[in-house]
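Lab meeting minutes (informal)
Scribe: AK
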Amino acid sequence: MFPYSKLAELQQITGLPREENLVFLKRLSGWIQKNGHTKTSLIKGITTILKQIKNEKKEKKKKLELTGIKNKVLIKYSDEIISYHHQGLGARRISNLMYELHKAKISHSSIYRFLKKVENG
């Protein structure tokens, strides 16, 4: 989709990791289609989207701090794990999927405890 060198440049400019830069670019393309591509519209879109992404990161970090998770792999894939849980998958199946898709070894008991903490608030 985008050359690696351009993504690296964007990462230096925005200060966001590669995955979040891809989200940023998708949101920006939607903004451009909706609001046009004038200079002021682009600048407003860029600043608005960057603020939204940084706010989402803060909320996610705060949410994870409340649950007291120390497992970094679990934190990395927490959104995906919650998504699979909402689709009706159990902890064992999610554990197997994480290994199949990402080669991430997360025990089913860790996933179960994580989901229990997230659900209880």
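Next up, CB showed the second protein from the same session:
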Amino acid sequence: MKMRTTQPNPDSRQGWWVAAPLLGLLFVLPGCVSSTLWDVDRGLTNQKGDPIDFQVTTAGGVHFLFDLFPLFGDGTVHNSLKHFQEAALANKAAGIRIVETDTTVYWWVLPPLSFIFPVVVSRVTGDLQFEPGTAPVKSKVL
């Protein structure tokens, strides 16, 4: 029986061209916070009849050991709530009602590196309530 040896494939480094941009995104995207006001004029009102609009705030960051504490940026729900309130005040909302909060830990993206440094994204969704006769700022993204 003849043993066959394999030579290293010169194209084996090709995977780094895919992994390098992904690793770069891990350190560029963290710390990003965005708030979007969905101001579709559908005549939505709260129980009192005041107009409402829909707002989504998303925060991301790189944390340590499965979301133990933030390293780059802050992807916690607490940070998303803080920015949600700041965006609501910038849009001159009279009140807010939180509808949903969600946190996703992307530990499965690039194991084992992402086990130690996972990307964490949290989202807060809610209604902005406005005084009668006042209109929200149209499509203001913070």
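CB comment: The radius of gyration is 22 Å.
No objections, moving on.
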